């Protein structure tokens, strides 16, 4: 297997009396879909936040390309090629898909005046959506007029457009119907096929096995199992999450 792209080693994080992470480990390799699973409160979101610069670990190490890094914040992590698609999407609902793709990173025509170059943004957005096989009914409609699945695709496209290394997706299909869910899973595979690593947090075990190459399991703030999706069943995943399987080498 290739060298890890992004790694957490012995990460601890406490919120008041709650020890959210207790020496957690995590490994993502280049160009794979790796699912991060665990019961409610296992520490998945907290771990993802430490790996994407939103939270600073109390102790432990984050390594990017084999070298220890300390992210100053999410923007610092983004600069290093790490993007996150949040559960609440964080889209601007009154803006169209192209404007959302460039939200906070607008292309200006004449930098001193900060005139937005909508033409360039529209063209680049259309290319980005095309490349990912995303078809929207109306590119100039505010995203509030899109379906939940289409909005999710815009959020994923935005992360992928800027991520050179890793995209974290926290429950990207949670609010979606069956067809839309399938579209987002296809999109995740296409992102992986472009060489970008996808880290998927999901409570949907069949979905995890359908789309992930590997699965890492967190329980009570530490990694308890690392599994190859093709050799694993839903029962084994549930067993690992609930304490029935604890691989000694997972730490
Ligand atoms: N900002 C915070 N302040 C206080 N406690 C927190 C905070 N964030 C997380 N926690 C606690 O840390 C623990 C781990 O939470 P986390 O959200 O990382 O788990 P999770 O595995 O993502 O859970 P879920 O699947 O329910 O989203 C929980 O007990 C949670 O209540």
Automatic annotation (TrEMBL):
Pfam families: ABC_tran. InterPro entries: AAA+_ATPase (IPR003593), ABC_carbohydrate_import_ATPase (IPR050107), ABC_transporter-like_ATP-bd (IPR003439), ABC_transporter-like_CS (IPR017871), P-loop_NTPase (IPR027417). GO terms for molecular function: ATP binding. Residues 6-245 form the ABC transporter domain. Keywords: ATP-binding, Nucleotide-binding. PANTHER family: CARBOHYDRATE TRANSPORT ATP-BINDING PROTEIN MG119-RELATED, SUGAR ABC TRANSPORTER ATP-BINDING PROTEIN. This is ATP-binding cassette domain-containing protein. It comes from Actinoallomurus liliacearum.
